[in-house]
Amino acid sequence: MIDFVQINSKKGYIRGTVHHNRPLSDYSEVSLILHGYLSSNRIGPHRLYFQIAEKLSSQRDVCVARFDCLAMGESDGVIDEITFDDFLYSYECIFSFFKSTYDISKFRLIGHCLGANLAIHLAVKYPENISKLILLAPSINLKIGDGIITKKQYDELSVSGYTLRKGLYADRSFFFDNNSSESVLSLLGSINVPIAIFESEKDEYVESVKLKITSQMCNIIEIKDADHNFLEPQLARVELLTKVLMEYSMR
User: Fold this and answer.
1) How many Cβ atoms sit within 10 Å of the Cβ of residue 118?
2) Which pLDDT tens digit goes with each residue over 56-108?
3) Strand pairing partners for 65?
4) Domain that holds residue 175
């Protein structure tokens, strides 16, 4: 079953879908997909999120939710006015919806790109509500002085934003939490739930970043030949879906 849901927040309606096989009141946990920047729209990897939701709900009998953040996709809001905090607020509203409506307060977060960044922040802010993180091609900010990258590497990665991967740059301030003094990589070390990171092969990682992630007991899984959005080639999409299903069942 697929339910179309809209949540009335103080900043407008947040719209999405919930995939499930049983009454929602039967579930004790929801798997929440956090989309990437603009990819909640009807282009790009939106189909990937639907496929993940369908696979998990049909083959693992879990409840999977996928919502568009404020100013994205079908939800209310103007993109030029959105902030990083507005994205976090969107998911906080979704948390509250499941708690107040179905008494569900546990979530597994499946975040892609920007959504992975948001998932990490939510896991730090609400540790009692998160049971696992599955991060797909995460975009994670780096900061000089955290011992992870050198000034030279920083300059090479920087345009107006900078990420865990070479070659992808954020050109809007809301892509990262610029108010935080810590890099998202530093935040990873304070999370006490299992973390799996799916790396698309065409995203070239900075080696020092990869070593840092590995040292924090994150499980890194490479998807061969995949691009950042896991759109091409088709075999990469199949491999990702298969491995997400396998990883989902592991604690």
Assistant:
1) 23
2) 998 888 999 999 999 888 899 988 888 889 999 999 999 999 999 999 999 99
3) 18, 32
4) 2-248
- Side chain identity, residue 85: D
Q: What is the DSSP letter of 55?
A: H
Mean pLDDT of 6-11: 96
Please write the tens of the pLDDT for every residue from 139-149. 766 666 566 66
Compute CA 71 distance to the chain's CA centroid, rounded to the nearest angstrom.
Answer: 17
Q: Position 23: which residue type?
A: P
Cis peptide before 233 (omega within 30 of 0): yes
With residue 131 as reference, give the H or E element that holds it: strand 130-136
Please tell me the distance from the alpha carbon of residue 54 to that of residue 48, in angstroms, as a whole number: 10
pTM: 0.87
CA angle 56, 72, 64 (to 5 degrees): 15
Phi, psi (rounded to 5 degrees) for 45 = -85, 15
Largest CA distance in the chain: 54
Number of H helices and E strands in the chain, helices first, is 7, 10
Q: CATH number of the domain that 114 lies in?
A: 3.40.50.1820
Give how many domains the chain has, as a whole number: 1
